[in-house]
């Protein structure tokens, strides 16, 4: 009887762990996107300074780079080129 309880508790623990991992997966992805976006925005400004290219870092560009990450920075670069 004790083994059956341990098995049930183990299965419940695995389900709870799975749910926690699924809930935390999205914020971690958003955090990594933000980090990569901001670092890439800094790199683009550092390298672009030699070519006369600059993306202003303000609340809008920081939010775009932070939320969308690398594709957001690519969109900012394209927007700056064609503006």
Automatic annotation (TrEMBL):
Assigned keywords, A-Z: Membrane, Transmembrane, Transmembrane helix
Q: Does the keyword Amino-acid biosynthesis apply?
A: no
Under the heading InterPro entries, the entry gives:
BofA
Q: Does the keyword Membrane apply?
A: yes
Its domain of life reads Bacteria
Looking at the Swiss-Prot or TrEMBL record, what is one Pfam family this protein matches? BofA
- What are the transmembrane regions? 6-24, 31-53, 59-82
Q: What is the name of the protein in this document?
A: Pro-sigmaK processing inhibitor BofA family protein
